[in-house]
Design goal:
With about 140 residues, this protein is α+β, with helices and mostly antiparallel strands. It has 5 helices and 7 strands; from the N terminus they run E-H-H-E-E-E-H-E-H-E-E-H. A 7-stranded mixed sheet has the order 1-2-3-4-5-7-6. About 25% of the residues are buried.
Length: about 140
């Protein structure tokens, strides 16, 4: 597995990955600047963007996984995103889910349901649920260390 930062890629690479729909993404420049493709055996299988939103808080946004990957692959993508967030000294990572399968996975990787965060105001989102997971220093503070 190889992580590829999308800020170094031509838009045509993202166009191919998203089947020509890259141009309709809202805020695509921020997504590209903070995005990653996951390549497996020479083929890009997933995309996500890790947007800094407030202080050391990140929003895991636009998580997209292609069909035909092993059932464990979404877990791998989430673990990769949390590792990247921790490397950036994140206190907390948020994700918005509108799929029950993702909700179940987020619970398994110890995300907790969250209230609507202030950084998301003004974003048009489908019906769904916010989740968050504390990382790094935030976890240490929460545990009283």
């Amino acid at each position: 597995m190889k992580l590829i930062q999308t800020n170094r890629l031509d838009d045509q690479v993202l166009q191919r990955f998203f089947g020509g729909s890259w141009d309709i993404f809202r805020g695509k420049q921020k997504l590209k600047e903070n995005g990653f493709l996951l390549e497996v055996q020479g083929e890009c299988k997933a995309f996500f963007s890790l947007l800094p939103v407030e202080g050391q808080t990140f929003w895991l946004k636009s998580l997209y996984i292609k069909e035909g990957v092993p059932s464990s692959f979404p877990w791998t993508v989430l673990e990769a995103s949390m590792t990247l967030a921790a490397e950036r000294e994140a206190d907390c990572i948020y994700i918005f889910s509108h799929q029950s399968a993702l909700d179940t996975l987020l619970e398994l990787v110890q995300f907790e349901r969250a209230d609507f965060p202030s950084f998301a105001e003004g974003h048009e989102l489908p019906k769904g649920q916010w989740w968050k997971r504390r990382l790094g220093k935030e976890v240490t503070r929460a545990e009283g260390r």
